[in-house]
Amino acid sequence: MPSAVGGISLEQVQHNLQQCLARKDAAGAQAQLQKAKLILLQQNSLVPSEGVPVGQLKTARSVLEVGALLAIRRRDPDSFVRYYSQLQPFYEFSGLQSSPSPNKSQVTGLYLLLLLSQGDYAGFHTLLESLIVSEGINGGKSVEDDIYIKYPVDLERSLMEGSYDQVWRKTNGRDVPGEEFALFSEILVHTIRSEIASCAARSYPSLSIASAKNLLFLDSEGAVSEFAQEQGWSLEEGRIHFPGLPEEKKGQEGDQKEVISHMVQYAKDLESIV
C-alpha cells in the first residue's frame, strides 16, 4: 500500500506541514496538505473503515482538521464546510472513540459560528442539541465548559435578546477563543451591522453621524460616511437622513423598533461619554 509521494513519506509530509503552520506559511502548508491527502487517498484512509489501521485513521483525521483550519485562514468558508463534512465520519467512527480528537470541539465551534454568521438558526440549534445529547451519553465536557462551543452559544443568546452591543464586545475582546474564530466573527458583525442599518432606516428619519458610528460599530465618522453612501443615505449638517417609508410599512416594524431604540440609546450614551 503506497505510503509516500515522490519518495517522501507521510511522516515527512506531516513534519513539513507542521513546520509550515509554525511559520504561518499558508502556501507551503497548503502544498504539504495536498501531498498528505494524496498519500492518505492511496492508503484508502480518507474514509474510516474497520480494515484501516487506527493509526492511519488518526493521521487522516488530523490532516483533515488542519485542512479545515487552513480553509478558514484562506477565508474560504465553502472549503471549510467540505472538510467539516469529511471529518464527521471520523468523529463518529466506533474504532476512534477511545482516541477522541483534541481538535474536535474547535472545529465544531467554528462550524456553529459559521451557521450563526449565515443566519442558519435551525441548523445551529440542531447541532447544539446533538452535542448536548452526546455529552449526556458519553459524559464529555459540558458545552458550557468548552470555550470553543460556549463562544458561539453566548453570541447566539445575545443575538436572540437583541443585545448587539454584547455581540460587539464578545467579538472584539478576549472572549474570542482563537484567530480562526475572528473570520466568522467578522462576517457576523457585518450581518448585524446590515440588520441594524435596515432597522434604523425603517424606524427613524435621521441620526447624528456620531450616534451612527457607535450604533453601527464603525471605527470613524469617515467610515460612517462611506457606509451611508453605500446604503444610499444622504448626509447633511452632521446627520444621516434615511429615505422615508410609507406609514403602513413603518407600522409593521414595532418589534424591530424596540430593539433598535435600545441600540440608539446605547449609541447616544457612548457618544456622551466620548
Summary of the model, kept short:
The protein has 13 helices and 5 strands. With 274 residues, it is mainly alpha-helical. Strands 3-5-4 form a 3-stranded antiparallel sheet. Strands 1-2 form a two-stranded antiparallel ribbon.
**What is the distance, rounded to the nearest whole angstrom, between the alpha carbons of the first and last residues?**
67 Å
Residue share in β-strands = under 5%
- What's the quaternary structure here? single chain
Report the strand count: 5
Estimate the global geometry from the Cα principal axes. elongated
> What is the arithmetic mean of pLDDT?
85
Give a verbal description of the structure.
The protein has 274 residues and is mostly helical. It contains 13 helices and 5 strands. The chain has helices spanning 10-22, 26-42, 54-73, 77-92, 104-117, 121-138, 147-161, 164-171, 179-203, 209-215, 221-231, 247-250, 254-273, and strands spanning 4-5, 8-9, 206-208, 234-236, 239-241. The protein has a 3-stranded antiparallel β-sheet. The protein has a two-stranded antiparallel ribbon with strand order 1-2. A hairpin with a 2-residue loop joins strand 4 and strand 5 (239-241). Helix 1 packs antiparallel against helix 2 and helix 5 (104-117) packs antiparallel against helix 6. It is elongated and about 70 Å long. The protein starts with a strand and ends with a helix.
Please write out the topology.
Blueprint: E1 4-5, E2 8-9, H1 10-22, H2 26-42, H3 54-73, H4 77-92, H5 104-117, H6 121-138, H7 147-161, H8 164-171, H9 179-203, E3 206-208, H10 209-215, H11 221-231, E4 234-236, E5 239-241, H12 247-250, H13 254-273
Antiparallel strand pairs: 1-2, 3-5, 4-5
